[in-house]
Amino acid sequence: MTRTSAASRFSLSSPFSTVSLGRLWDTWGITAILIVLLLCTPAIAPGFLEVDNLQSVLRESAYVGIVAVGMTFAIASGAFDLSVGGQLALTSVVTLMAFNGGGTAAAIAAALTTGLLCGLVNAGLITGLRVPPFVATLGSLFVFRGIAYLLTQDGPQTLPYDQIGSPFAKLGSLNIAGLPLPFLIMVAVFAGGWILLRRTAIGRRTLAYGSSPSAARFCGISDTRVRLFVFCLVGLTVGIAALTYITRVWTADGSAQDGFELKVIAAVVLGGTALKGGKGTLVGTFSAVFLVSILNEVLVSRGVESAYQRIVLGCVLIVALTVDGLRTRFAAPGSLRRALGGLIPRKATQSAP
Question: What is one cellular component GO term in this UniProt entry (predicted)?
């Protein structure tokens, strides 16, 4: 055996040789940033980590997180649903109307039914009329909000104050073992979504379709069924979220949660779901929901004006899109070694002539 410097082959003497920066970010990135943000909040907003305030954050994040479950499926399938803000406004208005007319059972039925119908409308536009998801949901966003405005042209729908002790009102105010009920509902929805995505055929088909629609169709996966499932799921999650939202704010009209869709999309993309489709992570979405919610609550507690809050939300969305691009760029094994360059030592190995 001879040692030739020109023909020497190098191998890394470090486990970093197979580490993917993209996978590392998906696993720990958002969680690490969330921890850093929590550690910094006492200096930024004293008293933020008090029990009452943390319960408020959990309660506030619930409706964003619930819809983010459905949006994770949508984006993983290679589509967007930009209408979730309009869906939430319309569903909230209809739900309060149903409660004032028929009580708790009617309100719950109205919320779930209205959400599903909104999802069916989007699915019909996309699968029946072949309208691109972006265009279809952007248009339905204005339609849903417009209907909500028409239903409340005489004034917003409200939950009567004398119903504060009703089972319906307690959906947003009740605590169980110190944890807000809306948060527990969100956890249940995430658990169900994870099982659906990772342990069922329709979940695997959704990911396969998002990865390559043409290959999925070649394998017998129906794009109509995938689209119908995804957008109806988004509508259902909006219906569930509306129940936790209106029992917290007690009022609804066409302007409810303006810009809501941006919060949801930012959380999903920051959490690790690929914009190009084919990949979705509900664990990452869960952490990102709290990151966005805590950031918003810190701004509110500091008295930041709503205009600046929107600027921050826009910046978060831009960061989310940037992170998605970087995640794709550094997805291959060994990308951490390549990024660090000469900081990781190399070990020369001998090769036979």
Answer: plasma membrane
